[in-house]
């Protein structure tokens, strides 16, 4: 009996798990969207900040950049991830490299250690998105990891994201539509290391993931952060 | 071969039918709105004084506009133009640098530039942000100045220096070299000062601008003191900036920059003295002929409001907005003290029909003249507060008045509530969606649909479906509902009808409001699983039954007692009805057990399984799906229907 239990424990510990694609990064990130955010309450060892740095608008064959205009404050030592939202306005997309340049510029923001691209690409835009990410990858140093957000369907039903030059795809397990529930596991390897949840929806335990991104539709406060973390700790 | 050709043709047609642009999220299905809560359906009309029924949920922009009209100030055409309420495009559609680039790139020999980043990041420890460093005016001024240099010596030199200046907008800190040509000297001094300003060297820039101000030969000497003051603002020396800006505003020689100086003084005051500024703005915003300042004042006022700046006690505009948006808290006392229309509107809103204050409020509301912007609002409240007979008469009168569609819908809702018989109910049940695309298409709102669904007996529903009072589309939909309701309420449903319903995914015994089912063809499967119906006790995205169950009983007072009892009895049966696929499964399995040779049984079993896949389901649906699947494959294994049914669905 003892041997059996010991064996099971050993298997549990020795079973190969996906390597952390962002080693050294905190296991919790707060998404800080375009509003004044003061995250100085955050312990930099406990959580990082993935902040909307800019919105890259694609339309009429050209790129326009809407920078973040709201202040973001954070503690010294906070791990920063610059989120770049991509918003196509019409079907006339500019050359992918032009858009990539606008995205890649965010890597120059002081203190940023990773880029996250947020683009709800339609079926017809997927090839473009793939090319775009490839161009971004070529434009920024190899030491700068690229993360991407993912519609849940990308992680559970069609798997088109395989092979994209990113280290992780963060399935956004919120705003999923009435009655929809995420799968228990996500098949694409890119989707297995992280998950995104929102504080304004019942926090359901996401599929096992090493890293959580927390979205708050309101400005973050120390108390909302603590409440979210209390809930998250129940999952691990 | 013909089959293959047909398949290819179908694929091509499908490719053509799919729109090129599909949203990444969704679905975003059309939803009928009969009145809006955040803003009026026609903001320009509202700004022109057609207030309709003023909603406390409207944005404060509209509360300020309404207040102005309610106190008789209103907005003149220039003021309306200045504030131009309405949806704003959040995304930058045109860059601020466009006028400059257009002018610059026309110069022969100049290498075209297609974009200038006007925003600069703030480099501070543990902080990230950016701001608009180079405003539109800078680019416009550059374009105008370029016109002065066109074709003259130094043109290219000046453009190169200006390129350096604008590179500083986003990140550089380069300063143009001193001018070699004497005719460029004054302009170069200005370019150098500007470059220092945009690269955040504010003390040096200020010194340069002060030097320019004292250079009587410089075309920039008039604007220079103003820019020197801006250097103080940018470097956070607000008190010093106030002194200089006041000096500029008082200097007749600098009249061109008076308005700008006052604008900057207000900019500082909003930040240094928010409570005092909010009070000043509340007073300024009720002044007539304020077109020069009303837009910025509104912006500042709403910003301070959002920051919860404590308002001054004697600030009527702010007090009124706070009260009105809080349901009229304290409004009665204010109205008694002031007797003004804004407070009358707020007090009426807060009143209930049995409140002691109602007679005096109704008397005051009666005195409001038809040409008053408050007329529609106060009369809506009168209808709500008056005894039924008087309210009915008043509603009939006011319904003849021209008013916004949303107001008309709300009066119709009140008039429907006051209906004395079924005919009157039907007359006021339809409403017009405020969506301009749907004008002329009247539909049922939630209140009228719920009443028909739960409080009207089947016999009267048939009468309504066959009559002419409801709009044609609503009648057609009601006819289908009546047919299916008759079927599900029958003790022993006819299988012909059950079979027909299996082939009609759009069929439901429930009355729906708004646009109803997205897929209009009742015979077609809806891609969003809005097929057949959900159990009244279950959950669904399309028909949230919990709300219906938890809401109080719906009673049609206008019906005779016998009809009401009949409706209640029918509703009890409908409320207990299982989800459509379950009901269809139960009927089909029962019929199949009794009539195994009936040729309709195999297709019906196939359709039951299909319904369990595409329909609204609950925890019992899987059982019906499995039983239909098993029976189909066990009893009719070689039928085409068995072959078309490879799975059952949980």
Name some characteristics of this structure.
heterodimer, A: nine-stranded mixed beta sheet, 5 helices, globular, B: 650 residues, mainly alpha, two-stranded antiparallel sheet, 55% helix, flat
Question: How many angstroms separate the termini of chain A?
Answer: 27 Å
Number of helices of chain B: 32
Low-confidence stretches of chain A: 5-16
Structural class of chain A: alpha/beta
Estimated structural class of chain B: mainly alpha
Please list the strands of the largest sheet of chain B in the order they lie side by side: 1-3
User: What is the first-to-last residue Cα distance of chain B?
Assistant: 39 Å
Major sheet of chain A:
9 strands, mixed
Quaternary state, please? heterodimer
**Number of E strands of chain B:** 5
What is the count of DSSP helices of chain A, taking H or I runs of 4+ residues? 5
Helical residue percent band of chain B = 40-55%
- Count of DSSP E strands of chain A? 11
Largest interface: A-B, 39 and 28 residues
Which term fits the overall shape of chain A? Answer: globular
Structure description:
The complex is a heterodimer of chains A (236) and B (650). In chain A, helix 2 (96-104) packs across helix 3 (126-139). Chain A has helices at residues 2-14, 96-104, 126-139, 152-158, 222-233, and strands spanning 28-32, 37-39, 48-59, 62-67, 72-74, 80-88, 112-118, 146-150, 168-171, 194-198, 211-215. Mean pLDDT of chain A is 86; it is low at 5-16. Chain A has five helices and eleven strands; from the N terminus they run H-E-E-E-E-E-E-H-E-H-E-H-E-E-E-H. With 650 residues, chain B is mostly helical. Chain B contains 32 helices and five strands. Chain B has helices spanning 2-17, 43-47, 60-70, 77-83, 98-104, 136-149, 155-167, 185-198, 202-213, 224-234, 238-250, 258-272, 274-284, 294-306, 316-325, 331-338, 341-350, 358-366, 375-385, 388-398, 405-417, 422-428, 446-455, 458-466, 472-489, 495-502, 545-550, 561-575, 580-594, 601-614, 621-635, 640-643, and strands at residues 119-121, 127-128, 130-132, 430-431, 443-444. A two-stranded antiparallel ribbon of chain B has the order 1-3. In chain B, helix 16 (331-338) runs antiparallel to helix 17 (341-350) and helix 19 packs antiparallel against helix 20. Chain B is flat and about 105 Å long. Classes of the chains: A alpha/beta (236), B mainly alpha (650). Chains A and B meet through strand 3, strand 4 and strand 5 of A and strand 2 and strand 3 of B. Strand 5 (72-74) of chain A pairs antiparallel with strand 2 (127-128) of chain B.
């Amino acid at each position: 009996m003892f041997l059996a239990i010991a064996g099971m424990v050993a298997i549990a510990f020795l079973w190969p798990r996906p390597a952390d694609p962002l080693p050294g990064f905190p296991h919790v990130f707060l998404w800080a969207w375009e509003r004044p955010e003061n995250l100085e309450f955050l312990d930099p060892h406990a959580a990082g900040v993935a902040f909307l740095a800019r919105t890259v608008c694609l339309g009429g064959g050209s790129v326009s950049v809407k920078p973040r205009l709201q202040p973001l404050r954070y503690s010294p030592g906070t791990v920063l991830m610059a989120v770049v939202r991509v918003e196509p306005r019409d079907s006339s997309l500019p050359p992918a490299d032009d858009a990539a340049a606008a995205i890649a510029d965010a890597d120059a923001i002081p203190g940023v250690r990773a880029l996250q691209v947020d683009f709800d690409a339609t079926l017809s835009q997927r090839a473009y998105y793939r090319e775009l990410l490839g161009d971004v990858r070529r434009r920024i140093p190899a030491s700068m990891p690229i993360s991407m957000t993912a519609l849940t369907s990308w992680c559970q039903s069609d798997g088109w994201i395989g092979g994209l030059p990113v280290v992780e795809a963060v399935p956004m397990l919120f705003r999923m539509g009435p009655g929809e529930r995420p799968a228990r596991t996500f098949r694409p390897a890119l989707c297995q290391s992280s998950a995104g949840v929102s504080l304004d929806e019942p926090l359901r335990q996401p599929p096992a993931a090493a890293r959580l991104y927390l979205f708050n539709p309101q400005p973050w406060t120390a108390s909302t952060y603590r409440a979210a973390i209390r809930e998250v700790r129940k999952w691990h | 071969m013909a089959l293959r050709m047909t398949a290819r043709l179908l694929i091509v047609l499908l490719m053509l039918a799919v729109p090129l642009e599909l949203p990444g999220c969704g679905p975003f299905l059309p939803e009928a709105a009969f009145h809006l809560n955040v803003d009026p359906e026609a903001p320009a009309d509202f700004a022109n004084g057609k207030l309709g029924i003023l909603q406390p949920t409207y944005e404060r922009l509209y509360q300020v506009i309404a207040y102005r009209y309610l106190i008789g100030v209103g907005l003149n055409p220039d003021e309306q133009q200045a504030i131009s309420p309405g949806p704003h495009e959040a995304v930058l559609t045109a860059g601020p640098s466009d006028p400059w680039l257009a002018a610059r790139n026309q110069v022969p020999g100049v290498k075209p530039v297609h974009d200038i980043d006007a925003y600069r990041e703030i480099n501070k420890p543990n902080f990230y942000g950016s701001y608009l460093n180079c405003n539109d005016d800078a680019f416009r001024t550059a374009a105008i100045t370029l016109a002065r240099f066109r074709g003259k010596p130094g043109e290219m030199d000046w453009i190169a220096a200006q390129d350096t200046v604008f590179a500083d907008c986003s990140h550089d800190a380069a300063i143009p070299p001193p001018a070699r040509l004497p005719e460029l000297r004054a302009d170069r001094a200005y370019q150098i000062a500007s470059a220092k300003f945009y690269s955040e060297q504010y003390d040096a820039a200020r010194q340069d601008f002060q030097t320019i101000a004292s250079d009587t030969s410089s075309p920039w000497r008039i604007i220079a003191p103003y820019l020197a003051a801006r250097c103080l603002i940018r470097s956070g020396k607000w008190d010093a900036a106030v002194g200089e800006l006041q000096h500029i505003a008082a200097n007749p020689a600098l009249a061109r920059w008076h308005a700008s100086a006052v604008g900057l003084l207000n900019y500082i005051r909003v930040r240094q003295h928010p409570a005092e500024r909010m009070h000043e703005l509340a007073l300024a915003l009720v002044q007539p002929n304020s077109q020069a300042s009303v837009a910025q004042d509104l912006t500042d006022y709403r910003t301070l409001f959002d920051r919860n700046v404590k308002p001054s006690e004697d600030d009527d505009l702010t007090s009124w907005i706070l009260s009105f948006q809080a349901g009229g808290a304290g409004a009665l006392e204010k109205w008694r003290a002031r007797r003004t229309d804004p407070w009358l509107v707020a007090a009426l809103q807060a009143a209930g029909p049995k409140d002691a204050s109602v007679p005096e409020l109704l008397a005051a509301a009666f005195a409001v003249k038809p040409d008053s912007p408050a007329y529609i609002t106060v009369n809506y409240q009168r209808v709500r507060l008056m005894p039924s007979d008087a309210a009915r008469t008043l509603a009939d009168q006011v319904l003849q008045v021209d008013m916004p569609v949303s107001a008309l819908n709300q009066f119709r809702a009140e008039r429907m509530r006051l209906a004395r018989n079924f005919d009157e109910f039907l007359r006021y049940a339809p409403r017009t969606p405020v969506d301009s695309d749907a004008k002329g298409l009247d539909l049922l709102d939630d209140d009228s649909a719920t009443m028909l669904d739960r409080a009207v007996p089947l016999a009267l529903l048939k009468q309504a479906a066959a009559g002419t009072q409801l709009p044609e589309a609503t009648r057609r939909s009601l006819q289908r509902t009546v047919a299916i309701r008759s079927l599900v309420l029958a003790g022993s449903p006819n299988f012909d009808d059950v079979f027909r319903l299996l082939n009609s995914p759009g069929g439901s015994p429930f009355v729906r409001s708004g646009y109803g089912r997205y897929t209009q063809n009742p015979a077609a499967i809806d891609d969003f699983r809005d097929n057949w119906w959900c159990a009244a006790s279950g959950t669904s995205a399309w028909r949230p039954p919990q709300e219906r169950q938890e809401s109080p009983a719906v009673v049609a007072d206008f019906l005779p007692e016998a009809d009401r009892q009949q409706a209640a009895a029918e509703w009890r049966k409908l409320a207990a009805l299982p989800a459509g696929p379950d009901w269809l499964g139960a009927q089909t399995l029962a019929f199949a057990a009794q009539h195994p040779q009936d040729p309709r049984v195999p297709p019906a079993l196939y359709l039951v399984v299909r319904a369990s896949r595409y329909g609204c389901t609950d925890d019992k649906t899987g059982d019906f799906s499995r039983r239909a699947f098993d029976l189909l494959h066990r009893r009719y294994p070689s039928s085409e229907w068995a072959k078309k049914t490879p799975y059952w669905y949980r």
